[in-house]
User: What shape does this take?
Amino acid sequence: MAGSDHHLTGAPEASEAAETTATSVTAVRRGGTVGSKAPGREVARAPADRRPGLPTPRVTLPRDGEPRSPRQARTDETPALRSLDTPVALPELPGERPFDTRLARRDGHLLLGAQLGEGGMGVVLAARDTELGRTIALKTLRPECARDDAMVHGLLFEARITGQLEHPHIVPVHGVGVLEDGRPYYTMRLLSDLSLGDVLDQLRRGTGFSVRNYTLTQLLHYFRGICMAVEYAHARGVLHRDLKPDNVLIGEYGEVQIMDWGIARVLPVAEGDPGMFAGAPETPGTIAGTPHYMAPEQARGETALLDRRSDVYSLGVILHQILTLRLPFEDCTDEAQLAAVRDRLPPRPRLRAPERDIPPELERMCLWALEPEQARRCPSAIELWNGIEAWIEGRKERERTAELAGEQAALAEATAGRYYRLREQLKALEERVRSDARASTPFDTLPLRRERWESALELERRQLALARAFAEAVARYQHALAHAPTDRPVTSGLARLYASQAEDARRRGDGATMVLYGDLARDAWRRLGMESPANLAVRSYPEGATIRIMEVAGAESAEEDAAPGIEGALDAGMAPCDAVVLRPGSYLVSGQLPGYREVRVPVVLSPGESRRLLVTLEPWSASLPLVGHGDALLALQQAFHVAMHERRLVGVLVVGDAGIGKGRLVVELDRFLDALPEGIYFSYVRVSSLHRHVPFHAASRALRHRFGVRADLPAHEVRDAVRQGVIEALSEADSPAPDHGRAAQLAELITSVPGLGGEGVGTDATPGLDAVAAAMAEVLIASARERALVLSIRGADHVDRLSARLFRRLARALADVPIFSVAFSRGATTLMGFSQTIRLGPLDLEGVRHQLSILLRGPASQALVALVHRKASGNPFHVAELARLLVTTGRARWADHQWELVSDAATADEPGPRDALFAGLSGLTREERRAVECAALCGRVFWADQLSAVLGASCASALEVLADREVVVPQPASRLRGHAEFAFRHNELPEALYRQADPEARRAAHAACAGWIASAGLDELDILALRARHLELAGRSADAEPLRARLAEVAAAWEPAEAAPWFDGEAGGAKSQGPPA
Assistant: This one.
């Protein structure tokens, strides 16, 4: 307990100002400065009975030098005991505070013990009242102050005020008297040495005991006692003026007592009267109190404005300390602190101590009490407490509802755990049922069929059980949120539950359900504030599709009955697209490609998720049926399942002539892969005869598609994209933190391959085929730990020798990795080895009948079937084209419930496949016909500007007509940036047009094409090969030789010295009798 001296003794040390309690000051303003009270200044005595109920203390003091006996002093102080000649025998109750009598000195009926505190004018001693048998506290003046009348009156004034403020939370005064040495004193209850300031200091240091025992609730309980005592004092017309944690003592049983009323102010009765201070009218301009706890008007010395709101401000500072463990202002000097209180706004507690998780309502109450403008400040201590008590009561209700929410959350977690277990069991059972379906045959034994049927029934039962578990878990979470709407674990659990349903819907291919639960999960994430963006990287198959991303709008943003559309969609550019940053939610990813159907894939993105998406597009010809090759499709599907479930590489080669149905088989296989519940990594490459002598063309194109590298990227961007793809592949392996150094090494090896940036590598600098194969194998093995790999090669008979060698080395290294490789070829001879070969043959008569019935949507007559079968030779493409020709020209019509040949058509010239090919050219203008004929001389794939150079005129309008007729198809990803690229829809038409062209016209066209390509200034290997091919066909083999030599030089850097020549006797265009592919 501190003494009651209240004068400015100097500025505390800077280090102490912020962490220790501030000192009390009583100062008298003189000329705008604050100084200590002048020695010897007379303090005016207060007139007797100026305030009713609080008379001036009347104490008989001895004259100077007059001795007093202990007996006399005792009877003067305790008149009720004057008649007693013997001590009163008192019982000693247990639990009394220890008092060391050995060092105590007697003063009348008091034993004066150790000093408890000391100030500038007074001291506090422990004392023992021998008459009542209790330990008390005695406050008296320092010996040198005992003859100062002002100090004597100040002490007695403090005793009188404290004694008359009888309240449970104000220290009680027991008596007033004079010691044998003439010093006045008063006695009061002796409390523990623990103050609220000590408690807050312990909490600031983070001691374990204080953190466990002095919770916010307990501190607010202490604060309630302070508010109640202050409100009582105000009702009695007394301001404390020095409220601070150090002046609040806390007893062993939680008692709260306000001490040190030495600078209290007795409010005037009438307006304009001065208040009483230290037993005398208060001098205007007096600044009394502790600077850190002063109200602004108190710090300015505006004594006439002091009222109960001034103490309320001090209560606000105490509340600020309770909430933040820091003072609002922590200036080092009293002058700076007074200036801060006068001129600055108090800081918000939640900003001052963000780690303390301060309730907003308590912050509001604290700032209300700390309002600098008196008129806007909380008007009373009781109103301040009422606001806090309302929060406490609300907190009790919140704790009750939180307890209920916790019970519901525990039940929800248990139910959700059951749901997730059932979900995993269901996945395993689904896979078993699918495996049984694949393995079943009509010849299975009855017990085996029963066993598989029981599994299917069990699957249905588990699906119902899973749906019930999901509904129960959602209901439990919703019940918990009804009690605690902002509970983060509960909301997170519900979001995870919804996200699992969205994922299951995605695996089933149920886009509507996926979006439904994806939106529910998104709403939960937003309530959690989980708005970290997601990343979406998109590839397309075939590559080069235009990608647009549109968010699936909810009811709050979509027009009534409106469906999501392209309008307002994000244009992500041409696939492959780098990671597109999106906010979490549900999206439709649109892929558009000329000659292909637009596809829209629903996607649900979680906060912070990185998703890679493959958009598979189908050509318009996909509407044609797959007839006669169902067994081939089934064989491909079974081979895929063998690779996945036996965890090994399986390679299948599909062989068939042009138009035999390989394209339709590719479409059906793509559909099968898209419908798989598990994700796969898909890569494909299309190779033509032109690429047979382009080193690593097939391998580099397959890797470009796997890593999402566009054809028009410069070499350094190709390396960056591959490096990022390698890092992602390694991240999907067991280690969550990939070795970036190793990733850079692998990427460097992979990008050394020509076609990925390694065209300029010299013979001595190549890392070698084995090193590259090992690097690729390491990346693919890492990728396959997460998902199976699928590689599709079209034109496998044209794969270059180096790519074939690389593929064979990879096959040996990846023999035990789940990889499914399917290749399509016209001939059975390839440079690669496959474990299985599927040969597609022509349709028989019944196969043609079946295809015609599907194409014509009705039965065909025997004559019509026989004609088409004979002319098409069972080729499904020719069957479709002939059927189109017969129907569109009126040679076949619907009659007598079937399609029949028109009577005169049976004897007329029978149309053949060539007629069907050229039927699409009928009705063209002369310019349009010439354009398509010249385009065939340029090659199956050509550029519009290239065709214009051959024609000597613009071909834009002609190409538009040809594209509308589906003779040619615009290509999305041009190999030459800025030049529109086109391709013939079928290979047979340009080949037929090329064969019928005049040889001289052919040579001139090839020369013009080679010149135009040279002017483009590109040196990619496939472009060099195309230019060389045109020069050869133009009869300029000598000009083509340097280009062929360049290709051979690049190849030689990777081949052994004893390898056969790269072109192997094909110089001069000996095998180049058709248009460039």
Observations:
- Confidence is low (pLDDT under 50) at residues 1-84, 555-567, 1067-1072.
- Residues 176 and 186 are 4 Å apart (CA to CA).
